[in-house]
Design a protein that fits this description.
The complex is a heterodimer of chains A (329) and B (285).
Chain A: H1 9-15, H2 19-34, H3 39-61, H4 70-85, H5 91-113, H6 118-138, H7 140-143, H8 168-190, H9 192-202, H10 206-209, H11 214-240, H12 250-263, H13 268-288, H14 290-307, H15 311-328
Helix pairs in contact in A: 3-8, 3-11, 3-12, 3-13, 4-5, 4-6, 4-11, 5-11, 8-11, 9-11, 12-13, 12-15, 13-14
Chain B: H1 2-27, H2 35-51, H3 57-78, H4 88-110, E1 126-129, E2 132-135, H5 136-158, H6 160-170, H7 172-177, H8 182-208, H9 214-217, H10 219-229, H11 234-254, H12 261-273
Antiparallel strand pairs in B: 1-2
Helix pairs in contact in B: 1-5, 1-8, 1-10, 1-11, 2-3, 2-4, 2-8, 3-8, 5-6, 6-8, 10-11, 10-12
Classes of the chains: A mainly alpha (329), B mainly alpha (285).
């Protein structure tokens, strides 16, 4: 039998770290020194970026629409909060606990979610997240209900770094977790697994024909996405030492969708850039007037859907072509 | 019994508001999460007509429906129609954008508080029967709801507009080939759905309340009606709305600590067991 040799070099080339990526990851380090007063905001950006990354995995890569992704974020947040409140205040332990819980929840709910068409998925994800929201709302003894979960006390990170008032530890902690999780996600989407997901998104009917277990792959990515969201939620709890009911709200899921679409779906850097742009705009505009911010948020969403479906990353990817065209003229 | 009656009345409101969504979502295959925004618009329009212009309630509510219908037509012609062929994700994002804009506009114009509603005297009060207190307004709602449901059913099944609508939905290409102006049918249907939502919003202020968060607060209820009732099915929507209204009111009365949890659970279970809805016919697409 003749050996089939496949030239993998284009794939390997694509998975190598590019200089632009290194520069990108230096930016948050520079930001630490440039904006020492806004570390709280910067940590928020890192955490939301991780959350956006989790939705990007399931929506951008696998094409599963979710209107209730905040459910897993909220589960992670409450898990970390409750663990810390009842004495397990070690941050990494809390992170692991939250990840396990959210992953398990993602695995179980994936079977519900993946049954139907897009429309059913929308409603099931929304329904599941609203159920959890109501549960958290009503279980006041446990979660504090609308008042939020208080009394979350974190032990120093690795027994060494306390969470200080300026948010230095919180920032480095969030950033490093984000980077590690990003690195993992990057490996994931460039693996054969990641390529099969993109294949499923592009043509569900053809993938089984080339031997891809579609259902299994979707369950796997939904579970992983849920776990990522749980870690993001746990980070939020640990860095702010508080959980509000808002972590599970519909508007958090909706905002996340917007972030992803703004940055460009199906691109890990799109999720990160979208988050940074969104959070910075939110910080400055809602400082002027929260309602004003929400209005323009809605308008931006409508415009993006109508005119710029591929987001910021799509624009960046088109730049070289545009520049070449200009030079040609 | 009184509780049952209240449940039926709130079910009627849900029916009025969601039947339009059932058509756009189920038949035209457009995920319009912003449907509640039209109901909210109707509600605010009604409040303005009542308090600023001093119109009588029975005139203000239909006018509110007209306002919602006009908004529906304008948005359909300018924005919605561009997205009929888009993916569901795009439609969701688009309508979430509209919700955000609607909420913040309502905030800006009317403030965050609940809007008061002053019903005319003849709609207030109760009829007291042995063992049963019937609010007159509740009775009014049920009467309006039933007659509209009947009218809609008649329109869809008996009139030529109804026949064209069914044709346009089942097979737009063939309908076009037969000389039916599918675009106009869709616009009219969208306007009708918005008008009903507006009317429901106006009539519902007394029971559902009206504040800027309205479109998000009730979004799940509208979706449940469509999910349970089956898409584009008027009888199904009516039954589903009544059931939902009953469950909701009874649940809140007897099991307040569980709250809306049951409703959401019912929806998820429904969707999984019977994606076509309890009374559903198979969607054409």
């Amino acid at each position: 039998m003749a050996k089939i040799s496949i030239d993998l070099s284009p794939l390997q080339k694509a998975s190598a770290w590019k200089p632009a990526e290194v520069v990108f990851w230096l930016l948050p380090v520079i930001a630490f020194f440039l904006f020492p007063k806004s570390l709280a905001l910067l940590s928020q950006i890192a955490i939301t970026a991780l959350f956006a990354l989790s939705l990007d995995l399931i929506l951008g890569y696998a094409g599963i629409i979710s209107l209730g992704h905040a459910a897993f974020f909220g589960l992670g947040a409450y898990a970390a909060g409750l663990l810390a409140k009842y004495g397990w205040g070690d941050p990494l332990l809390g992170l692991a606990g939250a990840a396990v819980l959210a992953t398990a929840a993602g695995f179980i709910s994936s079977f519900l979610v993946l049954r139907g068409s897009d429309l059913t998925r929308l409603m099931v994800t929304l329904g599941v997240s609203m159920m959890l929201y109501e549960a958290a709302n009503k279980a006041t003894d446990f979660t504090g209900g609308v008042d939020g979960l208080q009394g979350v006390e974190m032990k120093p990170l690795l027994g060494e770094f306390t969470f200080d008032l300026y948010g230095k530890t919180a920032y480095w902690y969030s950033l490093i977790v984000l980077f590690l999780m990003f690195w993992l996600a990057r490996r994931l989407v460039q693996s054969p697994f990641g390529h099969s997901l993109r294949g499923i998104k592009q043509n569900v009917k053809r993938m089984p024909a080339i031997g891809t277990p579609v259902h299994g792959r979707l369950v796997a990515v939904y579970t992983i996405g849920a776990g990522y969201a749980g870690v993001a939620g746990a980070l939020l709890t640990q860095t702010t030492q508080f959980v509000s009911l808002d972590v599970m709200s519909f508007s958090r899921s909706a905002e996340l969708l917007l972030i992803l679409v703004l940055g460009g779906t199906g691109s890990l850097y799109g999720a990160l850039i979208g988050t940074a742009v969104f959070m910075a705009a939110q910080h400055y505009l809602s400082g002027i007037n929260p309602q004003y911010w929400q209005f323009w948020l809605g308008a931006a969403l409508v415009l993006i859907v109508l005119f710029a479906r591929d987001g910021i990353m799509g624009f960046l990817n088109r730049l070289p072509a545009l520049a070449a065209k200009k030079r040609g003229d | 019994m009184t509780i049952v009656f209240d449940g039926l009345a709130s079910g009627m409101l849900l029916f009025l508001i969601s039947v339009g969504l059932s058509v756009t979502l189920g038949l035209m295959n457009f995920v319009n999460l912003a449907h509640g925004a039209f109901a909210m618009l109707g509600g605010y329009a009604c409040v303005v007509f009542l308090s600023r212009f001093g119109l009588p309630f029975l005139l203000a509510a239909p006018l509110a429906a007209v306002v919602a219908a006009i908004a529906g037509v304008v948005l359909e012609r300018t924005l919605y129609r561009r997205l009929y062929a888009s993916s569901h994700l795009d439609q969701v994002l688009f309508s979430i954008g509209l919700i955000f804009m609607a909420i913040s506009s309502a905030h800006y114009l009317f403030g965050a508080q609940q809007q008061p509603i002053f019903l005319p005297d003849f709609l207030r009060g109760q009829i007291n029967l042995p063992g049963l207190d019937i609010g007159i307004y509740r009775l009014f709602l049920i009467a309006v709801g039933l007659s509209l449901a009947y009218g809609l059913q008649w329109m869809v099944s008996k009139t030529s507009f109804g026949a064209k609508l069914r044709a346009a939905v089942d097979n737009p290409r063939a309908a076009r080939g037969l000389g039916i102006n599918v675009d106009r049918i869709f616009t009219l249907t969208f306007a009708l759905g918005s008008a009903l939502a507006g009317l429901g919003g106006a009539l519902g202020i007394e029971m559902l309340g009206l504040d800027p968060a309205f479109p998000v607060k009730y979004i799940v209820y509208f979706l449940i009606v469509v999910a349970v009732g089956g898409s584009g099915n008027i009888k199904g929507s009516l039954m589903a709305s009544l059931m939902l209204g009953l469950f909701d009111v009874i649940g809140k009365y007897y099991l307040p600590q569980v709250g809306a949890f049951v409703i959401y659970a019912v929806m998820v279970v429904m969707l999984i067991l019977k994606p076509q809805g309890l009374f559903g016919r198979m969607a054409a697409k």
